[in-house]
Amino acid sequence: MSGPTIPVTEGATAPFVVVGFNKAGRQVPLTDPAAVTTGDPTIATATVNPDGTNGVATGVGPGTTPLNATSGTLTADPASLVVSQDLAVASIAIQVPTVTPPSP
To answer: What is the CA radius of gyration of the chain?
Structure first.
């Protein structure tokens, strides 16, 4: 994958856009609707507006998957979606430890 790396945490989202360039390398509006897919939806999913704005990648499970974008017959170099495991403490509880009796 030669596009950008987009980090996202499992259960969180990361923004992106799909942009067009003319032959001189200047950014121009897309003339055909943009569409995006991920290589593995168990790792991440993605959506984007037809004009390429407001792209959102959502981390589903830890891992790395390509983010692919098209507009008409054009295909972007895939980006790399890197989803990290959510290790943030979301709640706490009090538990009584279990004691295993010794074997006879």
So the answer is: 20
